[in-house]
Amino acid sequence: MDLQFSSDDLAFQDEVRSFLKENLPASVLDRSDRGLHPLKDDIVAWQKTLHKKGWIAPNWPVKHGGTGWSLTQKYIYNREYFLTGAPQTIAFGLNMVGPVIYTFGTQKQKDKYLTDILQSNVWWCQGYSEPGAGSDLASLRTRAVRDGDDYVVNGQKIWTSWAQYADMMFCLVRTDPDVKQQEGISFLLIDMTSPGIEVRPIIGLDGEHSLNEVFFDDVRVPAENLIGEENKGWTYAKFLLGNERNTIARVSRSQYQLKRLKEVARAERRGAGHLIEDTDFRRRIARIETDLMALEAMELRYLSQDIAGKKLMAEPSVLKIRGAEIAQAIKTLTVEALGPYGMVYESEDQLTMRNDGPLGPEYAHGAMADHLYQRAATIYGGTNEIQRNIIAKLILR
Asked: Nearest 5°: phi and psi at 369?
């Protein structure tokens, strides 16, 4: 495994660092630091800045608006991006449905949707999970029945992130109930302003509104919004989930948050000294840091194999499992480091009604919310239990 960057790669690294330092808005960085959900207007403005630079979609083909970067350059960009504390771009358009459209969509669909995705003009959400169909996604029951030039959709989706903002949804629907579950699913693009769609909020453990239920009552969707072939949606869904899991380890993001945890430990007092001087606490930090170093080495090894043209099999699942567990460990220890102030959390609505500022140090606000929200890290993107099944099937068979 060659870990040496070329002179060109190092120059590119310097360019990325300089751009992020000069262009990442302080308000966006502050929310990201606290683990607070991004504000829609802020994240859209930031994504438009990345688009203007030409860096919004590193993994897209050049002909569709991608960067043309090498795998090493993509690695460098992603690493430097998260080491600055920058927030994850909203993935539903850029990393999920966009690649599905340019890979399997018609030319008309590409012309209609891809530019708006790159320019962040349209906010997308994902219609996959249903009550009773989460990890067992193939058992979904939302129906789409062909009626002339339309599909008529009825059913329910759940845990739909940011549906309250969404202009469009990419949605898995059952178009043939009489065949094997995976063979009767289709992939539709649905306008969220269509009559018959109702979005109901789900307030999470963090006290915030990022999740939703979405109900479909005789929603008419133009048949031209079908991606690929009818009843082939499972193939496109697996393609999409593969893209999602390839970046879900987020090693550099955890490295950034571990650095902030150490800063908290240096600021927080315990007895006559500071928390960072506590032997047991230092041992727990060292354990996380060691695990994170091992995960980074694993990520680099897989990158080296990818560059060499070796097909990756279960490796993304391994990265997902360990990445999620390490991220949760950092969040948990951060809350503990803050002591009694770590237990205090007020939603943003509650905080704005106060006239005396947040309780505790400024940097404490948001830590508990982020800790609670990230309990889902081992669930979203495919539960860790499902990932272990994938590893068993592909490696241990």
From this structure: -60, -45
Residue with structure tokens 């500071």? 274
Radius of gyration of the chain (CA): 22
State the pLDDT at residue 142.
98
Per-residue b or e along 287-297, where b marks 16 or more CB atoms closer than 10 Å to that residue's CB? ebbeebeebbe
What is the distance between the alpha carbons of residues 173 and 183, in angstroms, rounded to a whole number?
11
Q: What is the pLDDT of residues 250-280, one digit of tens each?
A: 899 999 999 999 999 999 988 889 999 999 9
pLDDT of residue 272: 86
SS3 for 230?
coil
Query: In this predicted structure, what is the pLDDT of residue 247?
Result: 58
Q: Counting Cβ atoms within 10 Å, is residue 215 exposed (0-12), middle (13-18) or buried (19+)?
A: middle
**Mean per-residue pLDDT, 5-25:** 95
pTM exceeds 0.85 for this model: yes
Q: Would you state the structure tokens that stand for residue 4, as one six-digit string? A: 């040496």
Q: How many CB atoms lie within 10 A of CB 196?
A: 14
What is the residue type of 123?
Answer: W
Quickly tell me which residue has 């490696």 as its tokens. 395
Domains in the chain (CATH in brackets) are: 7-89 (1.10.540.10), 123-230 (2.40.110.10), 248-394 (1.20.140.10)
CA distance 203 to 372: 12
Q: Is 122 helix (H, G, I), strand (E, B) or coil?
A: coil
Tokens in use for 101? Answer: 């459209």
Two structure tokens written together for 137: 């996604």
Give 276-319 pLDDT, tens digit per residue: 999 999 999 999 999 999 999 988 888 788 788 777 677 778 88
Name the more confident of 228 and 375: 228
Of 320, 314, 251, nearest to 288 by C-alpha is 251
CA dist., res. 281 & res. 305, Å (int): 36
CA 5 to mean position of chain CA atoms: 28
CA distance 76 to 113: 29
CA distances from 60 to 57, 89, 101, 283 (A): 6, 15, 11, 42
DSSP 46-87: HHHHHHHHT-S-TTS-GGGT-----HHHHHHHHHHHHHTTPP
